[in-house]
User: Fold these one by one.
Assistant:
Number 1:
Amino acid sequence: MEEFLRQYGPIGIFLGAGFEGQTALIVGGLLARQHILNLWLVLACATAGSGIVDHMLFVAGRSFRTHRWVVRATQQAAFARALKFIERYPISYILAFRFIFGLRVASPIAVGVSQVPTWRFALLNILGAVIWASAFTFAGFIFGEAVHNLLGHGHHAGRWTLLAAGVIILVVAAVWAVRYLLGRRKARAAVSGPPDIA
């Protein structure tokens, strides 16, 4: 198991940081504390995964901002308020959007639709990715340190830390599954419309 994590853990952290969020970073920090992965490698993979994917989403928003679907979305009140906030506080928003639950994917697209210059987003995106990756990776590392100190320094401490990482992954997977199922139910309800009243 440890050999598998050493080989494929960095890839998982890269993809997890880009598409899932902070769970991959916390698990990476736990694995770094157990010396299964190098801490700096975890930070580099997390930063790269987040930075690259979010820049691609920004480019998508910038490239298709004149498309009728995007134009229609910008006319929604919530999207319009978000754009105003981005235009007014671009630095704060770009640095902070990774920490805002539910806006991870939409935010770089919204910034792409805004008037924020590409070079400014690119620089702030890198800085934001470093801050975000460091915060959650070190959170996992500190949690792993606490488990290590609580259970001692034998092999059983490492096993308990790996178990904790597994539990975190399962809980997050369950939450995502529930959210997905609820989203599909809402979508079906919206398509079918309200029931007819005789």
Number 2:
Amino acid sequence: MIHPIVKYGDPVLETPAKVVQEFDEELQKMVADMFESMYAANGVGLAAPQIGIGRRVAVIDVSNGKNQEAKIVCANPEIIHFEGEQREEEGCLSVPGFRGHVARPLYVTVRAQDASGKEFEMRGEGLLARAFCHEIDHLNGILFITHLSMLKRDLIKRKISKLKKAGDW
């Protein structure tokens, strides 16, 4: 089932998500829905809070659905190592229409659990490293605009406020 993407301004996006403790059929369904919702929105990553669910689960597929092997489920993820730096333009499904250059590590190692609860570690580089950081930020209640300059962030917030008043947000 495709869920609507929660937009900036919804409190669930700025609230740290709760740890996943049960790896049951309900979680399997949520993960499948998250992939479906992410692909429908043309994203490469999606965190549960972005569909209104305050749980520490994110899905990532930097192949845009072209490679089944590239699908990653991260429950309760944490970055255990990072190195290097990349500065690229970044956007977010929850802040549609806005982008900004964000500095992120070039390499990250993540420890997480898969959809069945099995713990794993994975090293990501480039776009995958960026996606890990971006989605884990979501699980911690942080949006990418937090990483922008105060000037750029305020500009985006003002534009969103105007869109809200016009009923377009």
Number 3:
Amino acid sequence: MKNKSIFFIILFIIIISRSSILNLINNTFKLYLNKDNTLEINYLNDEITRLKEEYNKLLDFKNNINIDEDYTITNVYKNNYGFDKLIINGDNYNLYDEVLTTEGLIGYISKINNKYSEISYIYNTKVPVRINDNYGKIISSDKDNNIIISEIDNANLNDPVYSVNNSYIGKVIKIDNMDLNTTITVKPIDLKNIDYVLVRSV
């Protein structure tokens, strides 16, 4: 009998307090939803901001390209590895395609994988180059990743250096006549902090 009385008392309290209880449940539920919505809205706003910044970088990159031939623009993976290679998005390229920034040539496609490709930096290649009307080739690099060129005897300091496809590589900063063969040191364009590149078939 006592248990029955307690039950009716609890039931009575619930009935007269149902409005307050429902409000409490409703407000708690709304608070939880609003908190989730706020987090989601903040995340979406941050993502929109990031995408706008990426778009503006890409637009700025494209607007500074002065190449008439067909080319592909792609992004550089942030998790590039090592010091002699760079990883770019995409696999629809050919081996030895030129890879450039708006400043000039940074390297060549050296390996094509599934969905991404590898670039060998210009200083790690043995490709032919042109200074004025003279042709030579890259033979090595120094500790600062400047390019060492041989087989060119007629060059001056600050002469521009180009690939055989007329892509700018850098400028002459040193001429060494001590050896039997003259070697020329070339400072390449900036190879750091690259977000986008263009790939041109050669």
